[in-house]
Amino acid sequence: MKTIITILLAFLLVPAFSQPDAKVKTGDKIIDFKVLLIDSKEIPLNELYGQSPIVLVVLRGWPEYQCPICTRQVGELVAEADQFKSYGAKVLMIYPGPSEVLREKAEEFTEDITFPEGFYFALDPNYLMVNKYGLRWDAPKETAYPSTFVIDKGGEVVFAKVSSGHGGRADVEEVMAALKGL
């Protein structure tokens, strides 16, 4: 128990080693990339947002441990699946990390999660997507700045929140408010 408390305190108290230099902001056209789903299927991002709004969530992925804040965030998103569906939105979660262990660790992360229809869990081996987006948190035991983007059907970012630490992530209410405006 003491170890768990120590890890949780470290998540909350550790300062950001650097600040994100996100290349995608509210009002920008989204940067397209191919989504590598956990089942190895590839889908171009524009095929997803061309059909419906997309909530793009960049998790911390595999920074040599499973992030408990990411686990909580994913659980909160999945719990609101009906609300996302009512807005016609899809949710795409990106799990970055080193390619040699990424699939194994992503499967471990998702083993107790049942993703509803319209939810996609994708891998970002070797940080290709997070580098393209300027979200690489290049510090020891870090991978990516936790980020959330809401993208409309035309590919425009209508909401963007990039955390400079482990916490400070977009909550479900913020995301729903952005979707409501579409």
TrEMBL record:
Gene Ontology cellular component terms for the protein in this record: cytoplasm
Gene Ontology molecular-function annotations: thioredoxin peroxidase activity
Pfam families: AhpC-TSA
BP term (GO), one: cellular response to oxidative stress
The entry's keywords: Antioxidant, Disulfide bond, Oxidoreductase, Peroxidase, Redox-active center, Signal
Annotated ranges, domain Thioredoxin: 24-182
Record-listed E.C. numbers: 1.11.1.24
Substrates-to-products reaction catalysed: a hydroperoxide + [thioredoxin]-dithiol = an alcohol + [thioredoxin]-disulfide + H2O
Signal peptide coordinates: 1-18
Reported function: Thiol-specific peroxidase that catalyzes the reduction of hydrogen peroxide and organic hydroperoxides to water and alcohols, respectively. Plays a role in cell protection against oxidative stress by detoxifying peroxides and as sensor of hydrogen peroxide-mediated signaling events.
Family membership: Belongs to the peroxiredoxin family. BCP/PrxQ subfamily.
Protein name: thioredoxin-dependent peroxiredoxin
